[in-house]
Amino acid sequence: MILFPANSIHINQKKIDAIESILKSVLRLVIYSRTHMADDVLDTYLSSIFDLKQLVAIKNAQMEAQNEDEAEEYLSHLRLSLEFIAEEIHEKNNFENELQLFKLLRIISPETNAKHPNKYRQTEVMVGGHNCPEPFLIPSLMSELFYQMNTISNPIIRSIYLHHEMIRIHPFADGNGRVTRIAKNWILMFDLYPPIFIDEVSQKKEYINALSNSFSELDKSPAQWNKSINLFFEQQLDILFESILSLLEKINFLGLKRMKQ
Predict the structure, then answer these.
(1) Residue 58 in contact with residue 201, Cβ under 8 Å?
(2) Less packed terminus of the chain by CB within 10 Å, N or C?
(3) What are phi and psi of 125, to 5 degrees?
């Protein structure tokens, strides 16, 4: 397997600009409005991830949680991972190396780490119709991924690129989706964007199809930007746009509520 070269990404600048515009509106509210508090943004992140009923449906689709107990456990790990990220960001630490990746694995998927402590997978796996790289290739591919990722200046594109290529590598025996999504959100949150999650089963199907088709195209032409990669990037930009728009609405509502008190 050859990683997709970061310098071949085609960015939809109009969507990036729209996201940046809303982000500035959020920052104006939090910084300049007397009706907002410094922790409003973080509280909004932590309180609006998923409701339990919705989460069970989504995790059923992902085959990661089939009942409320498993979903509760997932939510608990998810909250702990976001709190860990918030602490790291407070210390001015962005996500950029493998040591941080294994820290995330221990928090978000402790059962995986317990089976294979601080190790990449040792077995061959297939994602959809994509044969993931053999285990002996994973360390060098992950090192290359971090190198490529850190050459991308735009944090939004950097986070989506990491997401796409890490799922393609599938470095762990289990928990790859969870760890990848949290790592992506660390990059976003460091630069003040909200974390993004797929929150509808239909979105999950679109996400899987885009990745599967992209991987198939890259197996044929490893360095060529294709319509399926483009679709995946567009999907992620759309989800981020909706997430930041929702953040603006929720924080604005908090301010209006305090004004009436």
Answers:
(1) yes
(2) C
(3) -135, 160
Total domains present in the chain: 1
**Residue-level pLDDT at 39:** 79
Whether 17 is covered by a domain: the verdict is yes
**197 phi and psi angles, rounded to 5 deg:** -135, 150
φ, ψ (nearest 5 deg) of residue 131:
-80, 110
What's the pTM value of the predicted model, to 2 decimals? Answer: 0.89
At residue 237 the predicted structure's pLDDT band, cuts being 50, 70 and 90, is very high
Domain limits for position 47 = 6-256
Q: How many angstroms separate the Cα of 8 from the Cα of each of 15, 144, 203, 229? A: 18, 15, 26, 11
Phi, psi of 130 (to 5 degrees): -95, 120
Q: What are phi and psi of 232, to 5 degrees?
A: -60, -45
Q: Kindly list the distances between the CA atom of residue 14 and the CA atoms of 108, 242, 259, in Å, as whole numbers in the listed order.
A: 34, 15, 35
| Max mean pLDDT range (46-50, 176-180, 249-253) | 176-180
Output DSSP code: residue 8: G
Biggest CA–CA distance in the chain, Å, is: 61
pLDDT band at 63 (very low <50, low <70, confident <90, very high): very low
168 Cβ neighbours under 8 A, 6+ residues apart? 1, 127, 130, 132, 211, 215, 218
* Amino acid in the structure at residue 150: N
The tokens for 257 are 């509520």
Do 166 and 180 contact (CB within 8 A), yes or no?
yes
- In a 13 Å sphere around the CA of 9, the CA atoms on its Cβ side amount to 27
CATH code for the domain in which residue 109 is found:
1.10.3290.10
